[in-house]
Design brief:
- By secondary structure, this protein is an alpha/beta fold.
- It folds into two domains: 200 residues, Alpha-Beta Complex (DHBP synthase), CATH 3.90.870.10; 95 residues, Rossmann fold (3-Layer(aba) Sandwich).
- The protein is 33% helix and 17% strand.
- The protein is built from twelve helices and 16 strands.
- The strands form two sheets. Strands 1-8-2-3-7-4-6-5-9-10-11 form an eleven-stranded mixed β-sheet, with helices on both faces. A five-stranded parallel β-sheet has the order 14-13-15-12-16, with helices on both faces.
- Helix 1 packs across helix 6 and helix 11 runs parallel beside helix 12.
- The longest helix has 16 residues.
- The chain is globular.
- The termini are far apart.
- It binds threonylcarbamoyladenylate and magnesium ion (MG).
- Threonylcarbamoyladenylate binds next to strand 5 and strand 6.
Length: 339
Amino acid sequence: METKIFTKATVKEAAKLIQAGELVAFPTETVYGLGADATNEVAAANVYKAKGRPSDNPLIVTVADVATVERFAIITPAARKLMDKFWPGSLTIILPLKPGALNMTVTGGLHTAAFRNPANETTLALIRAAGTPIVGPSANLSGKPSPTTAQHVMHDMNGRIAGILDDGPTTVGVESTIIDMSTDQPAILRPGAIDEEMLKPVIGEVQTDKHHVGANETPKAPGMKYKHYAPDAQVVIVDHEADFAAALAWAKASGKDFGLLATDGILQKYGQDLPTYSLGSDITSATRDLFAGLRYFDLHPQVEMVLAEGFPARGLGEAYMNRIEKSAGGMHFSADARA
Ligand code: TXA
Ligand code: MG
């Protein structure tokens, strides 16, 4: 299958493919998604196939308006407040479904579903033109970092899907915050750009699920049990700028080929003669460019280890650290603990 590129100007052609049950990747403000008609069970099944994704991991339903959510789910007053305040935007809301409203392939057999209204006009136009909500998992192969450009999608999905709607690089860079509004106590299941401090004034106390699930446990956000964002090289997080000199000495002594994934100040000081990828200047650019950086090092297989900059886990920093922790398998450099 030839994977065609579409743009804002050719949204209607892309929408026709969605209507025909084909797969079309689409831009959002967070990462690119893999779209298919959410009401077409065969199309949804093909999304799992294209991604190589386990079928018990349910798909997000991407909508252009709140009215579409009402067709499928029960919107509680608190959930409605969140939609009023944050949609379109990087907040995915889990709601109880109306019985039989969505097929089992999309829901993974759950009685809830996750709804998302992305802040991207081209994709909202795609959904409106298709006349149907679309499923929207991240458009990467399972186990690879989420794609933040159409080129990343092409790298993973060329020949596997009918098209890619290219709207340039995404702006946020990590996936949406997921909040579970299907239980008595709202809970954040995945941190993203919309953080706890932004949610609290709208709906009050919010739980953060920091529990790590075991392989035999049924997780609340099923995606949590799978290893994510694992690049080929070992990622080691360096939490403090003051530790970079010691981390470099340690990496050199290991005899491994290593690279640096960090903001410009650190690269200027320590990046000479090393493979580097810039995370820009601050936590906002670092979050935006993180997945592109991890993919960059995958394209340079001689690099066996990547020293990556850590940030305080507050606000957007919590979302950044959540992703880099997964890619590092939790490995941090500590100047005190080095051998
Ligand atoms: O920013 C985003 O959310 C991107 C863009 C493309 O919209 N999409 C995305 O989808 O990250 P995905 O499938 O890669 O991640 C969605 C997560 C998965 O871990 C899945 O297990 C969880 O949401 N999820 C989906 N439906 C759920 C449900 N009913 N209950 C709990 N977790 C659910
Ligand atoms: Mg994903």
